[in-house]
Design a protein that fits this description.
This protein has six helices and seven strands, in the order H-E-H-H-E-E-H-E-H-E-H-E-E. It is α+β, with helices and mostly antiparallel strands. The chain has one domain: Aminopeptidase, CATH 3.40.630.
């Protein structure tokens, strides 16, 4: 006969293992692979953070059509957890050539398309309200998947600390880069490439 205490411990440990194993794995997909059934959820998550700063959310299907290749999305348990939106531009490693406003950077409905882009700009990182670890998943995934030699951000000042913790450094300050967002100032952060600021 096994002691009751030992049996209880084994049952509790198995229950804990079962609970850990039932957490659904995160899946990262490119925006161009996203099923249209997710567009409403995508829009809901983006609107909660970007309705005023992003004037192009009134036509999410058009945005995904124009920028799907530049988006990474985490899906956990059949729900969107987080969204990384980026833009490819030609900047030749010069942070001063990153456009000074959100609209100039992305173009109408995210349609900007530079010839021979060599720079990937992380424009926004948005998560579902109860999601966690989205930046730790999507930023390394973006660095791995996107091949451009220069990889930076167009970040609100409030996100600078997050990017520094993940390995980026500030290379340019843009006053009023997101005029519809408060605070409106932007910092270009470099994860790779980019010439050091003077």
């Amino acid at each position: 006969m096994f002691p009751l205490k030992l049996i209880t411990t084994v049952v509790n440990e198995r229950s804990a293992l079962t609970m850990v194993n039932t957490v659904p794995p995160a899946r990262v997909v490119n925006g161009s692979e996203l099923s249209p059934r997710y567009f409403g959820e995508l829009l809901s998550i983006l609107r909660s953070n970007w309705e005023d700063p992003d004037p192009y959310l009134d036509d999410i299907a058009r945005v995904v059509h124009n920028a799907g290749e530049d988006m990474l999305i985490t899906i956990v348990g059949g729900r969107i957890d987080g969204i990384l939106r980026t833009k490819r531009i030609r900047a030749d490693g010069d942070p001063s050539r990153v456009p000074a406003t959100f609209e100039q950077l992305v173009g109408p409905y995210w349609s900007r398309c530079d010839r021979d882009p060599d720079t990937r700009i992380l424009v926004d990182l948005t998560k579902r309200s109860d999601a966690s670890g989205v930046a730790r998943t999507l930023i390394p995934e973006g660095l791995s998947r996107f091949p451009e030699p220069n990889f930076g951000t167009f970040s609100p000042e409030s996100a600078v600390g997050l990017h520094i913790r993940l390995g980026a450094s500030a290379v340019r300050y843009i006053p009023n880069g997101r005029p519809r967002r408060q605070p409106s100032n932007v910092v270009v952060m470099s994860y790779r490439g980019f010439a050091a600021p003077n």
